[in-house]
Write a structure and sequence with these properties.
This protein is α+β, with helices and mostly antiparallel strands. The protein is 54% helix and 13% strand. The strands form 3 sheets. A 6-stranded antiparallel sheet has the order 2-1-3-8-5-6. Strands 11-12-10-13-14 form a 5-stranded mixed sheet, sandwiched between helices. Strand 13, helix 16 and strand 14 form a beta-alpha-beta unit. The longest helix is centred in the middle third of the chain and has 41 residues.
Amino acid sequence: MHIRSTVFFPARFVLLLMLASIALWWPGLASAAGAAPHNIAAQSPYWVDASGQATIEQVAQFAPTEFQALQPNQAFRLGEAALWVRLDLPPLDPTERWHLLFDSSAFIDSVNLYLPDGNAGWKINRAGDSLPVAQWSIPDRSPVFEVGAGGYTAWLRMASKPTPLSPRYHLISQSDLQSKRHWTYLMLGGYLGFGLLVMFLGWVHARLYRDRAFVIYMVYVGCMLGFQLAFTGIGGLFFWPDWAWWNNASPAVFMLWLAATGNWFVAEVCAIARYSQRAATAALAFSVVGLLYPVVYLTLNNATALLLLNLYGLLTVVIGPVMTIWAWRRGERYAGWLALGFLPLQIGYFFPALRAAGLITDSWATQYSVLIGSAIEIPVLLYILHHRAKHFNENRARLRTLESTDPLTGLTVMPVLRLRMRDAMRRAERYGHQCAVLVVELANHAEIVAVEGREVGDRALVIAASKLSRVVRDVDTVCRMANTRFTILIEGPVALPQIKLIAQHFVVKGLERTSILPGDLDLRFRMVSILLPAGAAILEHTEAPDERRVLSHLEKSLDLLGADSRKMVMHLPEGSVLPGHAVGSA
C-alpha cells in the first residue's frame, strides 16, 4: 500500500515523542524501582503460622530453631496462614530518619510491624490492602514504616489471600524515600495524563468518524488507567483512601475488565463477524465472562478463583493474537498491524501474571513492565485506528460521491441538478432577480469517435466537462444530462449580457487545443440558454413551469439549433423556442 511521506510525519513525531519520554523517565524508573543499599530481607528468620492466630508475645518467645532462613525470591502460598519474619535491624545513621519500605502493595493483604516500645511491650504499625490507606501508619502507595536509628529486633507479620506472598522490603533513608516518591509520582502522573489525553482524542475520533471501535478503545484505555492506579497503589493513596475492600479487589477487577475489553476491541477492529458469526459470538461471550467474573472471584476469594483469573488473562493473551492473525489472513488489512500494536503490552503482561501465579517474585519488571508496555501500545493503537477510520471514511465518501456524480466526468448527476434548479428558481422569484440555465452539446463528438475511437471520445467528454467547469463559478452547477450534453445552472442574480459572455467563453475554451487530445482535434460546443423566471413566458404551459419542463424545452430547442450548422449559440426567448418555429440567432 502506497502512503505519502506526509502521512508518516505524525507517526514519526509520535514515535520520537514516545522514545524521548521513555528516555526521560528511565532514570526515574530506575530510581523508583531500584534496590536500596540496606536490603535486610535476605536470610531473615521466618516462621509460618498455619492457624494465623499466633500473637506477637508468643512468636517472640519461640526458640531460634523454630525459624528458617528466608531465601532470595522465595514465595509463600499462605491462604489462611500468616508469615512472621524477625528483623534484626542494624545500627543506622542517627542523622537520618529511616524507614522500612515494601515494594509489592498490590499483593499484600495485611502487614504489621511490631517495634519494641521500651516497656517490654510492642508498638504495632499497620498497613496492607485489608486496611484503608487513610488508616495506615504512614499512608503511601505501598506499606512503609518508620524504624528510627535501628539497633534492635522487630517483627513483621504478613498475610495474603489468595495471591502468593513474596516479601520484598528494604531500609531506606527519608531523603531517598522522598526522592523515590517524587520520581514515582512524576512518572505515574505523566502516564495518567497521557492516558487521559489519548481518551479525549479517542472521543474526538468517535464523534468525527462515527466508529464504534473508538468507543471500545476509550473503555479499554480507561480500564488500563484504572488497572495502573490499582496496581501501583496510587488509587488507594489518592482516589479511594477510605475503601479497603475496593483497594484490595481493584487490581483483580481492573485486570479482568482490561482483558475483556481488549478482547472485545480486537473482535470489533478485526471485524470477526464479517468472516464468522460463530467466532464473533464466541469472542463476545468470552468478553462478557471477563466483565462478570469479578463477582465470582470476590465471592470465592480462594486459590481456585485465582487460578481461573490467571487462566483467563493467559487465554486473552493467546486469543488476541490468534484473532488478529486469523482476520489478517482473510484479508483484514489492519488486523496484522493491530497484532503488532498489542505486542508490547502482551510481553509486559507476563511478568505480573507470573508474579500473581507465584512463579516469580516481586521485581522491577513485575511492577512497571505493564506500564511501559501500555505507554507504547496505547498511542500505537490510536494511530492504527485513525488510519483505519480514515480509510473507511474515504471509501464511504467515494460511495456517496458515486451516488451523486457522473462516473465518467465526475460532474453532478441530474437529480441533484434538478433539485438545485428548483431552489434557484424559487429564490429568483422570491427576490426578484434571474438565474440562468444552459444546455451545451459537444457537437463534434460523433466525428471524434468515428476518427479516433471510443477511448478518445470518452476523453473528449471528460475534457469538455473540465473546460465548462472552469468557466463558471464554484456556486454554479455543471451536470452531464445525456451522452454528449451538459446542463449548467448559473445562480442569480444574472443578466443576459453576462450569459452571452459566458457562452462565448464556452465556445473559445472548446476551440483551445490540449495535449491530451490529438493535435488536430478541438471541441465544438453548441448551446441554448434561458433566463428564469423571466423566460418562462415562452413555455407552452400557462401555470408556473417546473424544472423538468424547462429542461425538456431547452433540449428541443437545442435539437432545432442543430439543424443549422452555422448557428452555435441561442439565447431564449430571443430565438426560435418551440418545435416547428424558425430558428433565430443570438
